[in-house]
Amino acid sequence: MGQKINPLGFRLGTTQHHHSFWFEKPKNYSVSLQEDEKIRNCIKNYVQKNRRISSGFEGIARIEIKKRIDLIQVIIYIGFPNLLIEGQAGGIEELQVNIQKKFHSVNRRLNIAITKVEKPYGQPNILAEYIALQLKNRVSFRKAMKKAIELAEQTDTKGIQVQIAGRINGKEIARVEWIREGRVPLQTIRAKIDHCSYIIRTIYGVLGIKIWIFWEEQ
């Protein structure tokens, strides 16, 4: 079953929670869902354009959105705050203004907060982004996966699995390569597992990166 369902959705209510907290009528559900996706894309585009280091690294672990009748609260969990131009005056305010202009939200206020992640390389999204940058720089995929596992092992994880699929190294036939260290019990609901799927566009085509990180068993 671990290969047929998203590991995060499989564990909702036990070891995982939703990244969006709001209630909506059935006829307006799709509109609110698209709004969440637009907010996340807008934040990622802003971070790419206004980061301090021009390395292409966003460092965003996840974005949580909480909606009320008159308020939209966005919490950005970021691993490397120095990548953002947070030191400049009005950095977060400028981001709020840009998002409000796109949505034309008059009745609801927007509040954005930034929270630093203690162990950034323990977050699958940041690890996947690191591997993507290595692949774009023509680093061997095996070396990139092993280096990502070494970084994750420094955060006291009990197991990690990395998988890359597509035209690896520009080969004509697409294939799947994966590597695993430690235990990754995908079929156990009480196992706390973080997962992400990341897409990288290269000159050879699209590659897919999947990462599973096993923390503990409750």
Automatic annotation (TrEMBL):
Localization, UniProt: Plastid, Chloroplast
GO MF entry, a single one: rRNA binding
Pfam family, any one: Ribosomal_S3_C
Domain of life: Eukaryota
One GO term (biological process): translation
Domain KH type-2: 43-118
GO cellular component terms given for this protein: chloroplast; cytosolic small ribosomal subunit
Family the UniProt entry places it in: Belongs to the universal ribosomal protein uS3 family.
HAMAP family assigned: Ribosomal_uS3_B
Name of the featured protein: Small ribosomal subunit protein uS3c
Organism: Amomum krervanh
Gene of this entry: rps3
